[in-house]
């Protein structure tokens, strides 16, 4: 039994090194154990200093110290992200004008958008997804391509965005702290600042793991968020960060 347990731990460690984060369900399926055993394994790995515990699973010790590339994040697309995108889709209405940010979850939103709307984006992947929808008026913001984040930027984009009162701007957070929403690139944070000021509704779509990640550039304060969409209900400590008028939605309800 002891040898089997060590072999199981080794498989979990290898999987964690690849994915950077694992849920209880991931561990159950990967090594074929019950939920109780998966939870005990999590406790043991955390106690041994081989992982960091989160609500519902574990993350690698290095998780949060660097931001994975868009391509890397796309490998870990989850049913939770799909559910969050469906929540966001309910806020898009025919005839509206919207901005959709560079985010793997918001790529799913772009793939799900139906005809009769106008979409602005600086995301290469969103533009590709929307380009096949003949009933969508697509406006692609140009400039230099950031290969890591797969978005375009030009200073002229800031002026363009400042003159559009978007019905809603859908923004994917890299990190969320008490004092605001953060991003890994200074020029992209500038885009988010302008969107927060110009959009009629600021919708941040973010997994709750972003509360445990750090990024260097602040985009806007939390009180600028009109609607926050997460994969699960916020814990009371997380909820306390937000203005009482902020609409808190989750993919579970």
Describe the protein in words.
It comes from Lacticaseibacillus mingshuiensis. This protein has ten helices and 15 strands. It is an alpha/beta fold and 253 residues long. The chain has a seven-stranded parallel β-sheet with strand order 6-5-4-9-12-14-15, sandwiched between helices. The chain has a three-stranded antiparallel β-sheet with strand order 1-3-2. A three-stranded antiparallel β-sheet has the order 10-11-13.
Give me the secondary-structure topology:
Blueprint: H1 2-19, E1 21-23, H2 24-31, H3 35-47, E2 52-54, E3 57-59, H4 70-74, H5 79-89, E4 97-100, H6 104-112, E5 118-121, H7 124-131, E6 137-140, E7 144-146, E8 151-153, H8 155-162, E9 168-172, E10 175-177, E11 180-183, H9 186-198, E12 202-205, E13 217-220, E14 227-230, H10 236-239, E15 247-250
Parallel strand pairs: 4-5, 4-9, 5-6, 9-12, 12-14, 14-15
Antiparallel strand pairs: 1-3, 2-3, 7-8, 10-11, 11-13
Query: What is the structural class?
Result: alpha/beta
Q: What's the tally of helices?
A: 10
- Could you tell me the radius of gyration in angstroms? 19 Å
In angstroms, what separates the terminal alpha carbons? Answer: 41 Å
CATH topological fold name of the largest domain: Rossmann fold
Number of strands: 15
């Amino acid at each position: 039994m002891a040898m089997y347990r060590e072999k199981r731990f080794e498989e979990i460690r290898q999987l964690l090194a690849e994915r950077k984060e694992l849920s209880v369900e991931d561990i159950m399926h990967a090594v074929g154990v019950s939920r109780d055993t998966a939870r005990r394994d999590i406790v043991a790995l955390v106690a041994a200093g081989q992982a960091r515990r989160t609500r519902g699973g574990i993350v690698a010790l290095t998780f949060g110290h660097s931001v994975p590339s868009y391509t890397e994040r796309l490998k870990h697309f989850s049913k939770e992200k799909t559910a969050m995108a469906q929540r966001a889709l309910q806020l898009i209405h025919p005839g509206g004008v919207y901005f959709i940010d560079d985010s793997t979850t918001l790529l799913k939103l772009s793939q799900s958008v139906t005809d009769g709307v106008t979409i602005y984006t600086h995301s290469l992947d969103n533009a590709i997804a929307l380009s096949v929808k003949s009933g969508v008026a697509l406006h692609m913001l140009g400039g230099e391509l950031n290969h890591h984040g797969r978005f375009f930027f030009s200073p002229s984009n800031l002026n363009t965005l400042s003159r559009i009162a978007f019905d809603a701007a859908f923004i994917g957070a890299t990190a969320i702290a008490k004092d605001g929403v953060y991003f890994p690139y200074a020029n992209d944070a500038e885009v988010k600042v302008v969107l927060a000021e110009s959009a009629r509704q600021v919708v941040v779509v973010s997994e709750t793991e972003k509360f445990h990640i750090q990024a260097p550039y602040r985009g806007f304060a939390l009180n600028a968020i009109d609607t926050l969409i997460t994969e699960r209900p916020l814990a009371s400590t997380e909820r306390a960060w937000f203005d009482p008028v902020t609409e808190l939605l989750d993919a579970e309800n």
